[in-house]
Amino acid sequence: MSLTVRGRPIRLSFAWLKPPKAGPDGSMSLFEHIAELRYRLIIMALTIVVGTVVAWFFRSYLTEVIFYPYQLAAEAIRAKNPGASLQMVNQGVASPFTLALKVSAMAGILATSPILLYQLWAFIVPGLLAKEKKWTLIFLGSATPLFLAGVAVGYYVMPKGLVVLLGFTENGITNLQDVNQFLSFLMRFMLVFGVAFLIPEVVLILNIMGILKAKYLSKYRSLIIFGTFVFGAVATPSTDPFSMLALALPMTVLFIVAEVIAHVLDRRKARRGTIDPVARDRALRGLTDGEDA
């Protein structure tokens, strides 16, 4: 692409952005990896900027969606206590612009997440073997819907948690909720749910890597499920049991599914004789049996 300034042609070239080509065996030097990383980061940054700009035109609708759980909770509290005074406020001159920018950026990142994940995948794939590429694709393909399912569950249970928290507001006292603080609270809440739904998949990956065997998952199942409910009680900011169960029950089901899959994989490894190198060594097996006893 070329431009003309005061009659002088100026040629703009983006060739320096192009990633270096890997060798026939996929190997690259350190500087080529850095150039590849620079290219991927620039593409990701430009993608987020474009997504944020597009989302900016829908910021009013997106803001209504984000604050819909608070409105539901406020209506439920007013139905029980007509004298309750709840109000959302925007503090500061720049606060409305900050809110619109945060909402647009969050929507832009979510909308462009497939492109961002592809750039991450394209950067790491040259260093992976064929088997590792397959498992990475399976992980990314299953992690994305699990994370989004966790976020959706967090968004769904948010009003019930807010009803409990805001229900402590006494008559005669106005509860003023800053919109930027509520947005941060909502993002943390949904992020906890999204990440929690990925924990069983992390357990399964550890099993695939040979770090965590299925028999240990079965041995400590009751403790893990108990810890899941404790995590659900701690991770949810509200004190109602519904939010805790909404997080702990799906995690428990996903953990049991991961345990079943881990048993299937371990049996397959046992048939191939690759489940544990220690088990194939007589001396090390005897030492391990002695420790277990």
From TrEMBL:
<feature type="transmembrane region" description="Helical">
    <location>
        <begin position="185"/>
        <end position="208"/>
    </location>
</feature>
<keyword id="KW-1003">Cell membrane</keyword>
<keyword id="KW-0812">Transmembrane</keyword>
<comment type="function">
    <text>Part of the twin-arginine translocation (Tat) system that transports large folded proteins containing a characteristic twin-arginine motif in their signal peptide across membranes. Together with TatB, TatC is part of a receptor directly interacting with Tat signal peptides.</text>
</comment>
<dbReference type="InterPro" id="IPR002033">
    <property type="entry name" value="TatC"/>
</dbReference>
<comment type="subunit">
    <text>The Tat system comprises two distinct complexes: a TatABC complex, containing multiple copies of TatA, TatB and TatC subunits, and a separate TatA complex, containing only TatA subunits. Substrates initially bind to the TatABC complex, which probably triggers association of the separate TatA complex to form the active translocon.</text>
</comment>
<keyword id="KW-0653">Protein transport</keyword>
<keyword id="KW-0472">Membrane</keyword>
<comment type="similarity">
    <text>Belongs to the TatC family.</text>
</comment>
<feature type="transmembrane region" description="Helical">
    <location>
        <begin position="220"/>
        <end position="238"/>
    </location>
</feature>
<dbReference type="Pfam" id="PF00902">
    <property type="entry name" value="TatC"/>
</dbReference>
<feature type="transmembrane region" description="Helical">
    <location>
        <begin position="37"/>
        <end position="58"/>
    </location>
</feature>
<dbReference type="GO" id="GO:0043953">
    <property type="term" value="P:protein transport by the Tat complex"/>
</dbReference>
<feature type="transmembrane region" description="Helical">
    <location>
        <begin position="105"/>
        <end position="125"/>
    </location>
</feature>
<feature type="transmembrane region" description="Helical">
    <location>
        <begin position="244"/>
        <end position="265"/>
    </location>
</feature>
<keyword id="KW-1133">Transmembrane helix</keyword>
<feature type="transmembrane region" description="Helical">
    <location>
        <begin position="137"/>
        <end position="158"/>
    </location>
</feature>
<dbReference type="GO" id="GO:0033281">
    <property type="term" value="C:TAT protein transport complex"/>
</dbReference>
<dbReference type="GO" id="GO:0065002">
    <property type="term" value="P:intracellular protein transmembrane transport"/>
</dbReference>
<protein>
    <recommendedName>
        <fullName>Sec-independent protein translocase protein TatC</fullName>
    </recommendedName>
</protein>
<keyword id="KW-0811">Translocation</keyword>
<dbReference type="GO" id="GO:0009977">
    <property type="term" value="F:proton motive force dependent protein transmembrane transporter activity"/>
</dbReference>
<keyword id="KW-0813">Transport</keyword>
